[in-house]
Amino acid sequence: MTKQSKDDAIIKVVLEYFYQQNRPYSIVDIFNNLHKEYGKTAINKAVLDLVEEKKLIEKTYGKQKVYVINQASMETVSNDEINEMDKNIANLQNELKTLQSFCGSVESEIKVLGNTLSTEDAIKTSDELTEECAKLEENLKKVKEVAKNVSPKERDEVYLNLKKYVGHWRKRKRMGSEMINCILEGYPKSKKQFYEEVGIETDEDYNVTFPDLTKFNIKT
């Protein structure tokens, strides 16, 4: 390749780069952006030749010189072409949303499948539940047998004792509440703070309630 042919090749590469990027660059920028494939001197000569041919415009900012493609040489885009590009962009955006939605559905399905028991695990779980049900049925059978052997007299004695103990429970709880209310009349803090400081635990703290004696036909 002759020197002139080589210079023309560099000019073509530089001009094509300016067309593609359509933004200002210094000589050093072009040299680096072309991956130092051409010497800085050759790049400088190509740029100056393009300026002389009015294909590039030279702009000076202080001591810095930059070069930009002559906008008069750029192809103009009609409104119809712009509208067509806008339409293509809108179509691509819709396709992107569709693909994102599809990917989301696939990911959700994969997650569900990942949490689903395998056939082997399902069989194992079924066997364990069957065994547990058999044990519960056996225990229920034993309880029913014991219940049959309890005489009406023994049952009545248990119910009466239950009534007595529930009565004591209610009485002691009422007495305790009355004592606490008397103390709280001169206590500077809230009832909750008093309970916390003294360390009082209530039935309500443990969701304990009085048993329903009506189902045992016992009048309280």
From TrEMBL:
Protein's UniProt keywords contain Coiled coil: yes
Primary location class: nucleus
UniProtKB keywords: Coiled coil, DNA recombination, Meiosis, Nucleus
One GO MF term attached to the UniProt entry: double-stranded DNA binding
Coiled-coil ranges (or none): 75-146
Stated name of the protein: Homologous-pairing protein 2 homolog
GO cellular component, one term: DNA recombinase auxiliary factor complex
Domain Homologous-pairing protein 2 winged helix: 12-70
Domain Leucine zipper with capping helix: 150-206
Family of this protein: Belongs to the HOP2 family.
Location relative to the cell: Nucleus
GO terms, biological process: homologous chromosome pairing at meiosis; meiotic joint molecule formation; meiotic strand invasion involved in reciprocal meiotic recombination
